[in-house]
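Hey Z.,

So I finally got round to the zinc ion thing we talked about over coffee. Here's the setup:
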Amino acid sequence: MCQCEDTGEGMSRFTDLIEWKYMKTCKRCHEEKELSEFCKDAVEKDGLRRICNPCNREQFAQWRERQQEAEKPKNQFKRDVAASWI
Ligand SMILES: [Zn+2]
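And the result:
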């Protein structure tokens, strides 16, 4: 029997990412994670974001929430103004 399927399970897709085995500490949650947990960012010295993907998502969600909160009064004002014209 060929054992390829057992021994090589999941390895083929990692062979071209061999440099990703190093760890990096997230500047937000301060957890040490694999480099594959970080987005690429050309602005950074090491070419990777300072915060991990889960933190990045969280931060973006919070940012979007704030944006929506910031938009709300304006939209409300527009609606009020529009309503006063009718
Ligand atoms: Zn993090």
